[in-house]
Specification:
- The chain is mainly beta.
- Helices cover about 5% and strands about 70% of the residues.
- The chain starts with a helix and ends with a strand.
């Protein structure tokens, strides 16, 4: 009984319609200019991407997921020494996706949609470290270049771009007036992911 159920699940996992999962490692690089670096001298950072999707028709559907990365920046100067810290950047996204090209084991997929962007770090206030946070809604999109190892399992090269003007600023979890023009968080990211087409399981 269990063996038969697993066989049905496996054979249906290669369907074009149905559920998908994807995850992997990415590198996120802030856009050019000081404005796209909410924290001083913020550098690019490593992270991960994970998503869960559903194809309503052949190679077209919706995908919901998260991108998280950690970025080093200069917190301040103490005793003539630069103090560094790390900021955690998180994006939750909902995208529409479509596959304009598929040839045997190779496929190109493009996705675009909205994202909620958040980056949390610290700043020095009266010689004390204070937790702060920037957040806002924006646009996110990407291309996936997939190579299928099997009919339902693929390795993907991920290339993405994110565009956001932060609209909320918090210190210690409370909304605060930033006092000047809010920064943006535009960035590009790339990485390597593993994609699995689950299909519509039948037990």
């Amino acid at each position: 009984m269990v063996t038969m159920g697993l066989f049905i699940l496996a054979t249906n996992s290669f369907a074009e319609k149905g559920f998908t999962i994807e995850g992997g490692l990415i590198y996120d690089q802030p856009g050019s200019g000081v404005r796209n670096r909410p924290y001083p001298a913020m550098k690019g950072g490593l992270g991960y991407i994970a998503n869960f999707g559903y194809n309503f028709v052949n190679q077209a559907g919706l995908v919901f997921g998260v991108i998280h990365s950690t970025h080093n920046y200069e917190l301040g100067v103490r005793a003539n020494a630069v103090i560094e810290d790390n900021a955690d950047k998180t994006t939750f996204f909902l995208k529409a996706r479509v596959s304009p090209l598929k040839r045997e084991k190779f496929e190109i997929v493009t996705s675009a949609g909205i994202g909620f962007f958040d980056i949390a770090g610290k700043q020095i206030i009266q010689e004390q470290e204070a937790d702060n946070d920037f957040s806002g809604l924006g646009f996110t999109g990407n291309f996936d270049f997939r190579y299928y190892i099997t009919n339902g399992l693929a390795v993907s090269i991920y290339l993405g771009a994110n565009f956001v003007d932060y609209g909320r600023y918090e210190i210690f979890g409370y909304k605060t007036d930033y006092g000047k023009k809010m920064p943006g968080g535009n960035s590009i990211n790339w990485g390597l992911t593993l994609f699995h087409q689950i299909g519509i399981p039948q037990f």
